[in-house]
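#lab-general

N.A. 3:47 PM
ok so I finally got the sequence cleaned up, no stray characters, all 202 residues accounted for. can someone with queue access submit it? mine expired

B.Y. 3:52 PM
send it over

N.A. 3:53 PM
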Amino acid sequence: NTVQKLEETEQRYGAFLEQSSEAIWRIEIPGGVSVKLNFEELLGYCAEHGYLAECNLAYARMYGYNAPEQMEGFHLSQLMPVDNPGNLEYFISFIESGFRLTNAESIEYDKEGNIKYILNNLIGIIENEKLIRIWGTQRDITQQRKVQEDLIYKDKLLSVIADSANSLLKEEDYNNILPDILQNLLAATSSDRAHIFENSKN
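B.Y. 4:20 PM
back already:
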């Protein structure tokens, strides 16, 4: 009968959520929000009223929690800093693409405040010209981003060192170019003069 079929469907759905290795979530927006609002109003309403209605264990563990119930009820603004420039671009793209995104990156934080880079697939559910909920799946790409940033940093530093060595070989009086070399090293390493001086003594 219909009731039995519904119960079986719910059981399969629950098993799928629980056993999936991919992080799955659902954001509910109480009352819905008109898709005709401007970006600031739409985002403001979602950030204030949208909340995590459902997620699976893989999602909860991604943020350092032991069970989905520990996160359910969190407001969207708690899950993601909506004022972050990268996240603003994320939301703008979501709206402009018809409330769906594929492989979109967001910047979030786990339970301990550690930064997380998340790759998202999401789709908004529209009813009567109102956004009422958002379904999504996501992957944690934090480690890949850190490796990528480390490679970029090393490439930049090696380039500065190579340019500095070339300049030293060409210049007879090192004092003429040392200020520029030091300044380039400061920029490449995000250090200050005191840091470089202290480490040069070791």
